[in-house]
Amino acid sequence: MNFSKNITYWYSNNKRDLPWRKTKNPYHIWLSEIILQQTQVNQGLPFYEAFVNHFPSVFHLAEANEAEVLKLWQGLGYYSRARNLHASAKYVANELQGVFPNNYKELLKLKGVGDYTASAIASFCFNESTAVVDGNVYRVLSRYFGIDTPINSSKGSKAFKALAQELIDGNNPSEYNQAIMEFGAIQCKPKNPDCLACVFQDTCVAFNENRVDALPVKIKSAKAKKKYFNFLVFISDDGKTILEQREGKGIWQNLYQFPLIETPSDISETVFQEHLSAHSLLKGQDYTWSLYNKDAIVHKLSHQHLYTRFWIINIKELNAQTIPINSIRDYAVPILIGNFIEEFSF
Length: 346
Hints:
346 residues, alpha+beta, Endonuclease III, domain 1, Nucleoside Triphosphate Pyrophosphohydrolase, 2 domains, five-stranded mixed β-sheet, 14 helices, 9 strands, 41% helix, MutY_C, 8-oxo-7,8-dihydroguanine DNA N-glycosylase activity, glycosidase
């Protein structure tokens, strides 16, 4: 069986109708690939459409300020992608006069572009014969060939990349790369794949050895750390509140948040009052407070779990830099805080 031809044939009959498949424009392809990193298609599609409409060219994106980009990105998470997207747009617009690199090697020089994204753009836009290897490709190859080398090991990444490169259809790398990713996304799914309707049923090692659920193999990552966040939601009598911009490196870099008290563990209301009494924003002030959510909201990130409570602080006036409450939705905030803002209905 010719693996490449069969998967491409399957793709021609089963591919989803997606806007970035109707263009060879490297700006649009690049946007879609950055958005779809760590994001499923159904979630990423409206963000892609919003970015294309809001920033129709790389020049428009480059000219935007970071706050505008982050605000449009809000809800996708992994905000370093948005910051890298913006940095690369400036590089392409200002250093390359708006012309995207047209090969894998040069695409790798763009901030936020690694092996997978460079391979995708190079093959989709410029028909370069360089194989993509993402989670879907790892899964398809691991199951079809019965490979149990961990996909998140250096040995595994090299082996799967080499195998993918051997299999790629050099005459039509764009179609082949999209085919194997689509096959992994909608046919050879992580859970409950439809093996009985699979074109590779007879030759798939995992299916014939009853190892579909065991492949691919992945080394377990370190246990996520727990953090305890207490956000202070100030509401003054004149309709003001406080949002602070996060500084320094981190997942929420340059995003806005309510003033934060981070504690080493969960705290009682009595302990919270002690923290509050010592807070610089409240010295000499009369205020009342209440706990918005008794049960902590658990926000799970890849490397840490945030146990979060929102404390409502009603105060006559604020002796700090404030914003009108009615403009709170203009600021780029983490989705955790964005959800609270919508739920609380200021």
